[in-house]
Amino acid sequence: MATLIEAEAASGGADITQRPLNRRNVRETIVRYRWLLLLMLPGITYFVLFRFWPMYGAQIAWRDYIPFLGIQGSEWVGWKHFEDFFTNPDFPRLLGNTLILAALSLFIAFPLTIVMALLLNELRLNILKRTVQTLVYVPHFLSWTVVVSLTGLLFAIGNGPLWTGVNDLLGTDINFLTDPAWFRPLIVLQDVWKNTGWGTIIFLAALASVDQEQYEAAIIDGAGRWQRVWHITLPSIRSTIIVLLILQTGQILNTGFEQIYLMSNPLNRTVADVFDTYVYFVGIQQGSYSYATAVGLAKAIVGVILIFGTNWIAKRFNQQGIF
Asked: pLDDT tens digits for 117-127?
């Protein structure tokens, strides 16, 4: 029987598995996987309409775009808008504000997500674990408008509970919503409260795949809970941490428009202006569409470079990257 199978594979079996792609094969594949392709259709439609098709309009970054003339009717100006952006006196301030907020998110919010996942993983009472998970997931579903409104109520001058408590504790009379020194701490606190719980989902999924026999062996050897976390849990999810860190690095200049815009005001604008809000003010309010597009493209290019650079560094240290 084995000889017959080998002979058949040598004669005609290879033609079946390695037959050239033609219309019939494509049609058979589509019919066979029609339901999977149907499930992919909404995602493909989203990326085509909102990711790939808008790239056609990105060419206005090299044109002096006038809406009445259209894209093709607008004059080519080359790299003029990019040069204006990098030589703009506001560029150092925008870059500094953006990088500081991104660094705070990367070095505070991201590690707290890992810590939260580890703490949830250590809970052994299922009812308590599910209750805590639900409570930390809920803030993610609130819009930034609601979060900023809650912040305004908590830190309202005169009657805000947190405003009263913190000022009584420090012996000061600070307006936290307008003080530039408190803008970044408030942004980080909002980000941590809203997104930390939701970010634990991926890490909890990775923790669920850790071999439980390793924990049992460590307990027999006398390892404490902290030692098990350090020597078993963290190494087991290291690849997941690195992949998410690479993706987070690529988004380092995307500080988020809605949150920053709602929290900014004329008194804290010196530290609140970032690339995202700058694109809105210049592109929408002032009508400089080509200039705003150039700013957005420059930010996107930096993000791509950071992704490739971080992935290359991970490979150099023999870690698993995203490609």
From this structure: 998 888 888 88
